[in-house]
Task: inverse folding
């Protein structure tokens, strides 16, 4: 089992949840997505004005922890990275925000204008540093999680012995940092600290704004790309997205949000000490997210309020030492038995109550639209040369050499087929072309640009399009979004991508049922969808690994027509087993055997070559000679 | 004088490395041979320390008490594996979260049971003097102890049926079951072994590090960083990485103080991970 | 003696094999032929209990086999997967010892026996399996499967990516095992020449189903069938 599938949160429940909450049924919910957070805020404000003042004070902290929960859900639920370092970012934001507020509040009277931006900036900066290390060192997700965990622990041990004076702020190790000003909203000298109720209102307004901005961002192209990266990072790479940069940007954003939480927290507590980095404190954050529902963004708030209220109601506040005990057990139980949280439970109840839609949409047959293929390539700067060239490319693993000095030049004009018996090294050769393997020696170039040690996403930007053997689609996104992401990668323009997708859906016969999840499509439909995604990239060099696998006779004919049409403008390389299909492409054939080029020529030459049949049948006489 | 200082510095580094290795090796075994990151490792160590302490105070000789501590911690580990780890195979991050929860439960339980301050074991504190410097004999004893533990683990995993099957299981779980290995049982034993090694560390270090509920914290940061930067070769990778990291840190700490030592450790780990993202021993072709 | 009946299954939602039935008699070597991707490996994994089962059963000597893979092995099913999958950071001896120990056989005896049976492995006994060549790994994978003392051996594409000279050795080993130890063998292959050397009877697989049962000699004479079968 791959690491990816291990670390991916059960997003299905979240997407179903999204559906059940109505965000998928356009267009009403598309326009009113902001309603739920705003309504929830209004209700909370109403509750607090009914309750006593001290309740407002305590409740403020829940909302602040909800903000930290949001910062975790953003990276965990959306990008699949479990960060145990959110309290570190929160704490750094808190300390820096506090130092800024202590020293600079006299200038304005207002404290928030200092604590919040400084907190956010510090959190973002810390996240940038940590994130750069995590994402640019090609670590696995496990190493990343451990790194976030240890950075929290390190801050705890460091802050205990860290003493320094910043202007009026004295950071005193275990003694912490005191006399932090409270919430002052007014400006000028006469500005006074506000009441707990007003403080609560302020924090709710800030939290609600952050939540709305985050939801909006995740509904934008950026959010869609992040979804894709979580679902299949290699495919996102093959669509030309700089996945590490996206992940880093998301993590920095999450750091900024946690930092805002830190700034708000220190103004609330008027005091901060190293225990802000403590394990106990850090533990709360994933609990909030798990209670509320991972991947929902507002789950962190729901969890923080639910847990906070419960312990407030049970033990009148912190609840003493037993709180940690109860929460530890709670975390274990949540992880063990229910990962979808309160909203997950609600959503599954809702699904059960709702009458099930049973209409099955089937795709229409594919009709290759040559005009569309032409149009896709319009407006692109045409490279002076269209080619994929490998020069003596070799790759070996231990004693095995699956790619052995392969020199090939693929250009437009006719289809190029790479064939060979099992284990001949076809897939490995393709991987050298896509950048999944970096060759040990020799070179690879695309359109005349040397890409020997270039990452896949940059090769795609240069004009490469790859369809792997297994259909790679983003199973939990709908058909339209799948194509849209590919089209967006090419144009980086939403409107342009929309029109491309409409035409592509027409061609694939998927206009009806474009809102189906790609994972619910049949095997053959997924293959076509994947091919459609590659076409949306309008590539100059196209690599297709067994594209006809699992297709019906008619589909194969369409595919053959498509592939032949593509060769007019692009260099097309097809790896196939099916001789009938290969013949219908009328290709130049390269036969690989034991990692090296065995022979090449047009299809008839190769078919009539006895030696080729021999290596397929395993007859040994000729093979030994070779 | 200068020479004495150097010798003390050297011995200090070696004992620091040995101590750290003793505290880390259980975590490394569980990670390297099960693929599980046990965030409650430090608390297993604490569990072993308290068990040893309790048994000692009942009048049992110290060495025997350590043994009892190891056995009880192993049993506890086996129970945790069956109840908590087994249902979540293949869900690495979930396992981490669950063991994290467990670590907090254990700390809190220890606070409730033993309070935050506890008496020591009352072993006589021998020390030897080197020039003007004094060194604890007991700490120096950790060096041969670490060597014995490492050798024992090596023999266990190369000479016994369990050991060979455990290594086969982590290298290819599916294939291991396809030659008849009951990987699920193997995992329970491995986790219990890792817990037992943590318990052993807790007991062994008791004279030097008094039992407190959060004593695990002292070791785990470094232990996790070592194990992650060590990579798949559970024993040699851990020993090598632990040695390098602990001695650099020890020197730094001796000169500039322990906080900077910790920071140095962290920075050095990050440097290692930057160079070897999947661990130092990722490409080592070695048995263990 | 060994029977797969109505095997239907695959990975998660994707069904890959459907209603496939195969029978191997005691002391027989049977080939399973078909192009890449027709479901041969999946059928083997089904037999080993390594994939999601939808329907069907596997029996050995008239008794249905238990669901767990490890228990199937102890009941007498040996498995050599495609791509070998030796334990790379175990030595050659340890690879064999692990398999023997898992089945509660004396591991020292098993290692000695294996090194005697496969002289090729003898000089490599203390070498890590990951350092062996492909052909040596294939032999080791077979030796490892034999250390479980199986009644039936499932061999998945033993010639894939192997030097021709070693392919002949492997064919020799299969025959010896079959004749001298009476082990029944089911071998999935694309290499027809190899199949002719070891088996008489073959099942032909296509798109997840068993489409034909033929004698290998008859198959080789039918050029058209060969081409269709292998997609050449």
Result:
């Amino acid at each position: 089992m791959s690491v990816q599938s291990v670390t991916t949160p059960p997003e299905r429940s979240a997407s179903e949840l999204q559906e059940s909450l109505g965000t998928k049924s356009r267009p009403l919910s598309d326009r009113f997505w902001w309603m739920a957070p705003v309504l929830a805020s209004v209700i909370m404000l109403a509750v607090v004005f009914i309750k006593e003042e001290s309740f407002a004070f305590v409740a403020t902290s829940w909302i602040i922890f909800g903000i930290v929960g949001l910062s975790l859900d953003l990276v965990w639920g959306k990008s699949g990275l479990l960060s145990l370092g959110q309290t570190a970012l929160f704490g750094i934001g808190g300390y820096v925000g506090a130092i800024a507020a202590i020293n600079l509040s006299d200038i304005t009277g207002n404290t928030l204008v200092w604590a919040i931006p400084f907190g956010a900036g510090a959190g973002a900066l810390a996240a940038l540093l940590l994130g750069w290390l995590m994402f640019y060192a090609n670590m696995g997700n496990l190493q990343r999680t451990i790194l976030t965990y240890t950075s929290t622990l390190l801050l705890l041990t460091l802050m205990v012995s860290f003493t320094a004076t910043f202007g009026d702020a004295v950071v005193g190790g275990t003694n912490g940092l005191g006399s932090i000003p409270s919430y002052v909203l007014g400006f000028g000298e006469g500005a006074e600290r506000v009441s707990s109720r007003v403080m609560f209102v302020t924090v709710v307004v800030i939290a609600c704004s952050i939540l709305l901005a985050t939801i909006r961002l995740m509904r934008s192209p950026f959010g869609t790309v992040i979804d894709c990266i979580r679902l299949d990072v290699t495919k996102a790479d093959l669509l030309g997205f700089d996945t590490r940069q996206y992940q880093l940007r998301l993590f920095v954003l999450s750091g900024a949000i946690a930092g805002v939480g830190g700034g708000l927290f220190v103004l609330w507590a008027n005091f901060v000490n190293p225990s802000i980095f403590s394990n106990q404190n850090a533990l709360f954050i994933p609990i909030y997210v798990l209670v509320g529902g991972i991947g929902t963004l507002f789950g962190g708030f729901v969890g923080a309020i639910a847990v906070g209220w419960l312990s407030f109601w049970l033990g009148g506040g912190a609840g003493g030492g037993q709180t940690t005990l109860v929460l530890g057990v709670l975390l274990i139980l949540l992880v063990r038995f229910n990962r979808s949280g309160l909203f997950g439970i609600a959503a599954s109840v809702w699904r059960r109550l709702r009458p099930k839609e049973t209409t099955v949409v089937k795709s229409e047959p594919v009709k290759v639209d040559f005009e569309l293929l032409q149009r896709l390539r319009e407006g692109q700067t045409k490279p002076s040369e269209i080619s994929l060239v490998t020069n003596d490319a070799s790759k070996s693993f231990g004693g095995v050499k699956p790619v052995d000095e392969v020199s090939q030049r693929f250009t437009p004009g006719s289809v190029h087929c790479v064939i060979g018996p099992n284990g001949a090294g076809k897939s490995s050769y393709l991987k050298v072309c896509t950048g999944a393997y970096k060759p040990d020696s020799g070179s690879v170039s695309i359109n005349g640009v040397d890409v020997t040690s270039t990452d896949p996403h940059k090769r795609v930007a240069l004009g490469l399009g790859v369809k792997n053997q297994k259909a790679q689609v983003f199973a939990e996104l709908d058909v339209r979004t799948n194509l849209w992401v590919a089209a967006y990668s090419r144009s980086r323009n939403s409107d342009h991508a929309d029109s491309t997708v409409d035409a592509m859906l027409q061609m694939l016969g998927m206009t009806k049922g474009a809102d189906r999840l790609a994972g619910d499509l049949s095997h053959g439909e997924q293959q076509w969808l994947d091919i459609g995604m590659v076409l949306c990239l309008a590539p100059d060099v196209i690599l297709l690994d067994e594209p006809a696998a699992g297709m019906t006779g008619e589909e194969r004919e369409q595919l053959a027509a498509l592939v032949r049409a593509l060769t007019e403008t692009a260099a097309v390389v097809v790896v196939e087993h099916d001789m009938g299909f290969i013949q219908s492409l009328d290709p130049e054939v390269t036969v690989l055997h034991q990692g090296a080029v065995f022979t090449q020529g047009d299809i008839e030459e190769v078919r009539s070559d006895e030696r080729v049949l021999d290596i397929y049948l395993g007859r040994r006489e000729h093979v030994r000679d070779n | 004088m200068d020479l004495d200082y150097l010798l003390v510095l050297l011995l200090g580094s070696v004992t620091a490395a040995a101590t750290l290795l003793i505290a880390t090796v259980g975590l490394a075994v569980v990670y390297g041979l099960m693929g599980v990151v046990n965030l409650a490792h430090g608390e297993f160590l604490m569990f072993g320390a308290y068990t040893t302490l309790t048994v000692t105070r009942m009048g049992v000789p110290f060495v025997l008490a350590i043994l009892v501590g190891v056995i009880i911690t192993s049993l506890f580990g086996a129970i945790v594996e069956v109840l908590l780890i087994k249902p979540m195979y293949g869900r690495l991050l979930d396992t981490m979260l669950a063991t994290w929860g467990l670590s907090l439960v254990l700390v809190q339980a220890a606070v409730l049971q033993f309070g935050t301050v506890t008496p020591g074991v009352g072993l006589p504190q021998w020390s030897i003097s080197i020039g003007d410097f004094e060194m604890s004999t007991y700490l120096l004893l950790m060096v041969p102890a670490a060597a014995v533990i490492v050798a024992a683990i090596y023999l266990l995993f190369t000479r016994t049926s369990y050991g060979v099957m455990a290594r086969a299981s982590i290298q290819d779980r599916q294939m291991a079951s396809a030659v008849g290995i009951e990987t699920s049982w193997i995992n329970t034993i491995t986790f219990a072994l890792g817990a037992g090694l943590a318990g052993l560390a807790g007991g062994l270090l008791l004279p030097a590090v008094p039992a407190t509920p959060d004593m695990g914290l002292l070791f785990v940061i470094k232990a996790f960083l070592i194990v992650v930067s060590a990579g798949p070769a559970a024993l040699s990778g851990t020993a090598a990485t632990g040695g390098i990291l602990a001695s650099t840190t020890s020197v730094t700490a001796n000169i500039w103080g322990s906080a900077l030592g910790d920071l140095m450790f962290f920075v050095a780990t990050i440097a290692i991970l930057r160079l070897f993202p999947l661990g130092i021993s990722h490409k080592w072709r070695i048995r263990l | 003696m060994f029977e797969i009946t109505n095997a239907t299954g695959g990975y998660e939602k994707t069904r890959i094999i459907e209603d496939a039935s195969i029978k191997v008699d005691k002391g027989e070597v049977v080939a399973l032929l078909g192009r890449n991707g027709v479901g041969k490996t999946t059928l083997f994994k089904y037999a080993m209990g390594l994939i999601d089962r939808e329907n069907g059963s596997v029996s050995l000597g008239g008794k249905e086999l238990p669901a767990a893979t490890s228990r199937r092995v102890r009941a007498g099913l040996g498995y050599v997967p495609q791509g070998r999958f030796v334990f790379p950071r175990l030595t050659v001896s340890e690879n064999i010892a692990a398999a023997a120990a898992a089945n509660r056989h004396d591991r020292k005896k098993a290692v000695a026996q294996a090194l005697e049976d496969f002289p090729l492995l003898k000089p490599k006994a203390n070498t890590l399996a990951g350092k062996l060549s492909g052909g040596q790994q294939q032999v080791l994978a077979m030796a490892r499967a034999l250390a479980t003392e199986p009644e039936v051996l499932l061999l998945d594409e033993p010639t894939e990516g192997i030097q021709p000279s070693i392919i002949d050795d492997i064919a020799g080993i299969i025959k010896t095992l079959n004749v001298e130890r009476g082990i029944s063998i089911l071998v999935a292959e694309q290499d027809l020449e190899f199949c002719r050397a070891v088996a008489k009877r073959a099942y032909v697989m296509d798109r997840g189903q068993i489409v034909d049962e033929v004698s290998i000699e008859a198959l080789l004479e039918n050029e058209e069938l060969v081409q269709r079968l292998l997609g050449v």
About this structure: Chain C has one domain: 2-230. Chain C is about 40% helix and 30% strand. Residues 2-230 of chain C form a domain with the Rossmann fold fold (CATH 3.40.50.300). Residues 164-181 of chain C form the longest helix (18 residues).
